[in-house]
Amino acid sequence: MSDFHALKISSVDALTPNAVALTFEIPDSLKATFAFTAGQYITLKHKVNGQEVRRAYSISSAPSSGEITVGIKKVPNGTFSVYANETIKSGDVIEVKPPEGRFVFKKDSASKNIAAFAAGSGITPIMSIAQTILESNPVNTFVLVFGNQSLQETMYLKAIEVLQEKYTNRFFVQHVCSRAQEENALFGRIETSTVNFIIKNKFKETNFDAFYLCGPEEMINTVSDTLKNNGVVEDKILFELFTSTKTEDTLAEDLEGKTKVEVTVDDETFSFSMDKKTLVLDAVLKEDIEAPYSCQGGVCSSCIARITEGKAEMVKNQILTDGEVAEGLVLTCQAHPLTPTLKVDYDDV
To answer: What's one Pfam family the UniProt record gives for this protein (predicted)?
Structure first.
């Protein structure tokens, strides 16, 4: 898809010794295009060392701010994260895709008690969600459990402290540090005992309307399982993975033959033949078709499409609901074709 826009970076701010916040300048002509809901992400496209890279980053600023800011933590041996932390400067221009994503908070008139469990850079969408919840209703409350190695390595620590001062009786933070003993912080990682401490002890009188979980897959699974064991219904647990364990593609081993594929993108239709052992998105990109994608690891939702004819099966799926899969939606970066013909529509999602 050709819906990337060249945006200038208005500021680069250090969050920790290993993380920066990039704020983009949005021209008036693109204000509507880049309007977003708290919790959504943007995809950045840029050439690093001569190679095009795409990365999805959650928006940390609140919609009410009129700005789009993302936080980027340096990953050891990372490509774009290292580039962002060491090279990008104010005034640079990067191609940016408009906001998308399903890990969101939509405002309504009802009062809300919300809790969030985040680890590391998983705080970025939570910052936007927390600010929006607190400002949208004068009785809303927000509890944040935030895991990091130390307070020095805690992204948005100053912004969190500002929110605590502004919403003293409605915004509550429990830091958890795995490599440093910090004042008023639990020592260790976010685990079963941490969740139980929050919902059965510290905030046992609070009836939470929803739980937002963001971070590594292991943390999300632990928190989600503990919440369910405490009687929290699944509909109240929303999550977004920032990293996912690698899944072996055993499905490809049993597939043989070719599939004739018809792909619709931006009202254009393309036809080609592909090996069933190949993932649909990989085959589409090999044909130089401008399909939407970002992580290529089944973590974001950029590559979702609808299967309108034929069948495809995903290696893993941690985003789409059973109902959405039944409707024909698929993560094309995880899908293998199973039938002799397959029609894929990226527009009908």
So the answer is: FAD_binding_6
Q: Which CATH superfamily is domain 5-100 in?
A: Translation factors (2.40.30.10)
Superfamily of domain 251-345: Beta-grasp domain (3.10.20.30)
List the structure tokens of 205.
């009188």
Render pLDDT for 254-313 as a digit per residue (tens, 0 to 9): 999 999 999 999 999 999 999 999 999 999 999 999 999 988 888 888 999 999 999 999
Distance CA 142, CA 134 (A): 7
pLDDT, residue 243, reads 67
Q: What is the average pLDDT score of the chain?
A: 94
Report which of 23, 87, 86 is spatially closest to residue 57, judged by C-alpha positions.
23
pTM higher than 0.85 for the full model? Answer: yes
Q: Per residue in 197-242, pLDDT tens?
A: 999 999 999 999 999 999 999 999 999 999 999 999 999 999 998 7
Q: Which of 214, 213, 223, 222 is nearest to 243 (CA)?
A: 214
- Residue 90: both structure tokens together: 């104010």
CATH 3.30.470.10 applies to domain 113-240 = no
- Helix H, strand E, coil C: the string for the chain is CCCCEEEEEEEEEEEECCEEEEEEECCHHHCCCCCCCCCCEEEEEEEECCEEEEEEEEECCCHHHCCEEEEEECCCCCCHHHHHHHCCCCCCEEEEEEEECCCCCCCCCCCCEEEEEEEHHHHHHHHHHHHHHHHHCCCCEEEEEEEECCCCCCCCHHHHHHHHHHCCCCEEEEEEECCCCCCCEEECCCCHHHHHHHHHHHCCCCCCCEEEEEEEHHHHHHHHHHHHHCCCCHHHEEEEEEECCCCCCCCHHHCCCEEEEEEEECCEEEEEEEECCCCHHHHHHHCCCCCCCCCCCCCCCCCEEEEEECCEEECCCCCCCHHHHHCCEEECCCEEECCCEEEEECCCC
